[in-house]
Amino acid sequence: MALPLRRPSRNDNGIALAVPILKERFGERCDLGEAMRAQHGHTTTWLPTESPDAVIFVESTEEVVEIVDLCRAHAVPIIPFGVGTSLEGHVNAPAGGISIDFSHMNRVLDVHEEDLTCTVEPGVTRKQLNEYLRDRGLFFPIDPGADATIGGMAATRASGTNAVRYGTMRDNVISLEAVMADGQVIRTASRAKKSSAGYDITRLLIGSEGTLGIITKITLKLSGIPEAISAAVCPFPSVEAACNATIMTIQCGIPVARIELLDALQMRAVNAYSKLDLPEQPTLFLEFHGSEAGVKEQAEAVSAIAEDLGGGPFTYSTRPEDRSKLWQARHDAYWASLGLRPGAAGISTDVCVPISRLAECVEETRADLVELDLIAPIVGHVGDGNFHTLLLVDRDDADERARAALYMERLAERAVRMEGTCTGEHGIGQGKMKYLRQELGGTVDVMKAIKATLDPHDILNPGKIF
Amino acid sequence: MALPLRRPSRNDNGIALAVPILKERFGERCDLGEAMRAQHGHTTTWLPTESPDAVIFVESTEEVVEIVDLCRAHAVPIIPFGVGTSLEGHVNAPAGGISIDFSHMNRVLDVHEEDLTCTVEPGVTRKQLNEYLRDRGLFFPIDPGADATIGGMAATRASGTNAVRYGTMRDNVISLEAVMADGQVIRTASRAKKSSAGYDITRLLIGSEGTLGIITKITLKLSGIPEAISAAVCPFPSVEAACNATIMTIQCGIPVARIELLDALQMRAVNAYSKLDLPEQPTLFLEFHGSEAGVKEQAEAVSAIAEDLGGGPFTYSTRPEDRSKLWQARHDAYWASLGLRPGAAGISTDVCVPISRLAECVEETRADLVELDLIAPIVGHVGDGNFHTLLLVDRDDADERARAALYMERLAERAVRMEGTCTGEHGIGQGKMKYLRQELGGTVDVMKAIKATLDPHDILNPGKIF
């Protein structure tokens, strides 16, 4: 599966000059060891590792500015690094350079309870933040599954299971501090909940994958921990019926917090992996947030919709331990999938289509998997029209790899044909570059013009997105 | 009140060449009459009229491309025009040029009920759209008060009373079609509900005030008309108590659809104007959307909060005719204010601060009005920390004009000092340029760099924002 990368050219001279200076300046916090470098240029997926030349553990915005100034002078690439949970090669170093590791910048700087905002450094992880907030009755709702850093989540416009109710990183970041390629530190917005003061540079940086600026502080919108949370599970006779139930739920304005689809293969995988005995049918997993009465009302409404569409039984619970049990299959989905074919590489796809096209898109995709003789259970954030197939590929089988590549191409084309996107939440990185123009046409030229202006020497995460 | 405008230089040569060509091409749809031109370079506020040289009523994206291509060749400014409800001089033509009037491009192109999306031309007004949608049980929630066009609302990142629940234009636009300065037509995103495919060019154009591209189609996120709507009104002993009730309401996660504050002076104005007998105290106007049970529960919760803070009586109704009556004071606020001082110019301010600073900001502002001997009732979208004061200024009194100018400067400084913005929803236009750098520092340089790249000849709405 060779990638048609625009591989930025490697400037060995500049790197050779810059690295010793940085080593001298940062001492032990500048790691040149092979293992550390490889770990920082490694994605959890099928993309080959591309190591940076050094990893620097920064401790302040000022240090980031120093590194940017030096790297600009020597035309050395800089790759911001959170914890490396990206799936599309965002942290790879195709032209070498410096990986800036933010794990030491992991302080929660302030929490404004009355405003439902907090400001954090980029290395804070989602779980760390929620632990910190719990006693105050607040939480940060974006949940991409992995315990990613807030900086990484902002840089890739992450979302996940809660997005159907709480939105994505786009909706939950109020303001950013960032170091730009010219070394300038900017604060993109005030802490006001809304503003119409000029261009939305906050949103421009969210999802820019470290190619326009290096995020050094993030001010987030928080939510109150709901008074009541309840969970439900409901099998359906078909993917179509499950999708239709989802459409009805959204259309009725029922504010579900999560609504996830697992297909029959995924359910079979979970039964095998977790020793469960669930119906091996397409199944919806739901979570409701609200008042005691509210969550009950929501669940009853969805239960009625499900029944109308031939779904059931609708199993429902408000007790935390029962909720965990009900959702176990969903939580285990990733590892259960890998268990379907031990030793295989797991490659996650990530298309998102208008919800009216979801059933059709999932069905065509399943048919394509059969035609191409590939194994890939399906998990979907169906309330948003977003679904993942986890391709289980034998790395050593060239023919299978070729079929997998064809499958992914057809999937992206299918999503675009159905007015959707090749990536709902994983980003472009290296892996999806070839689909970007197909999806957005001339808008890509606008992106490139902005990149060329804000980073004329192409030092910020080169070889990504374009 | 002279404005420190960066007035773009007028290219009389280019205009003299371009206008006859456009007149020849568009015939009657190219209006050179003085009245029409003045109407298109006129804001409803204190900013002087600056007429364009021609007004063209376009009928398609292709026509916009033609105009852009011609204007680029002759370095002639282009000013997109909706219905002209902007308050900060967005439609003025400080260097002359062509006003593109979108009133003929006012079709609803499609509605996807299952996806809760629709695509419209920019000249569709908010009320026209909601009329169109009503029979389908859907509505577009953004309500800036005026019956603005969707194109204008997108261009200025508008919001209004419903934003506390439904967000602003930022949150409710899925995708845009725009004609860029080079004549290229782009589609900024697919119709998927979320995407992480490259830079967020949709959000970059929203709020760019016609300076980066001309919006020619807008795909919107719609909402279901709620099953139940109820309204409430509650007076408070002080602005602080009303603000604290608002903070508590938001913090408790009560999903109020609208929560508006009128101060005592505004209430007095309304009593006089609408022959009402309401308590002349700071008063909250609320609206609740949800299920029958849900809206009742919400109102009960807010009522309890209000009582705790010394507010009351809490008057509540679900019947449409009673709801209108309860909200009459809010609806009449603008005209009632003008009635306080017939003949005066009304100048609306628009700061927005974190909600924890709102009471303090309003109180300081009121004290400043007393000190400067100015009259300005207050209306606030307090759930978002956004409030307007409507300055009533005698245009012929130079001293009063100077005091008003000083007041507005201090207000912007105060908002920025309290971590807020000089404009929550009206935009920068001409009127707020001088506050932008004060608020956002070097971020303004990033904006300027983007403007220079995407519109190198400065033909798109020059003299605005910067």
Characterization of the model:
2 copies of one chain form a homodimer. With 466 residues, the first copy, chain A, is α+β, with helices and mostly antiparallel strands. Chain A is built from 17 helices and 19 strands. In chain A, the strands form 4 sheets. In chain A, strands 12, 13, 14, 15, 16, 17, 18 and 19 form an 8-stranded antiparallel β-sheet that branches. The radius of gyration of chain A is 22 Å and the shape is globular.
Return the CATH architecture of the domain at 108-224 in chain A: 2-Layer Sandwich
CATH topology of the domain at 108-224 in chain A: Uridine Diphospho-n-acetylenolpyruvylglucosamine Reductase, domain 3
Estimate what percentage of residues of chain A fall within beta strands.
15-25%
What is the CATH level 1 assignment of the domain at 108-224 in chain A?
Alpha Beta
Structural class of chain A: alpha+beta
Give the helix tally of chain A.
17
DSSP E strands of chain A, number: 19
Provide the gyration radius of chain A in Å: 22 Å
Largest interface: A-B, 92 and 92 residues
- Quote the average pLDDT of chain A: 95
Unreliable spans of chain A are none
Q: How would you sum up the major sheet of chain A?
A: 8 strands, antiparallel
How far is the N terminus from the C terminus of chain A?
18 Å
Instruction: Tell me roughly what share of residues is in helical segments of chain A.
Output: 25-40%
Task: Outline the secondary-structure elements.
Two copies of one chain form a homodimer.
Chain A: H1 12-26, E1 30-31, H2 34-40, E2 54-57, H3 61-74, E3 78-81, E4 98-101, E5 108-112, E6 117-120, H4 126-134, E7 138-139, H5 150-155, H6 163-166, H7 169-172, E8 173-180, E9 185-187, H8 201-205, E10 213-221, E11 223-224, E12 228-235, H9 239-251, E13 258-262, H10 264-274, E14 283-290, H11 292-308, E15 315-317, H12 320-331, H13 333-339, E16 345-348, E17 351-352, H14 358-371, E18 378-381, E19 386-393, H15 398-417, H16 433-440, H17 443-454
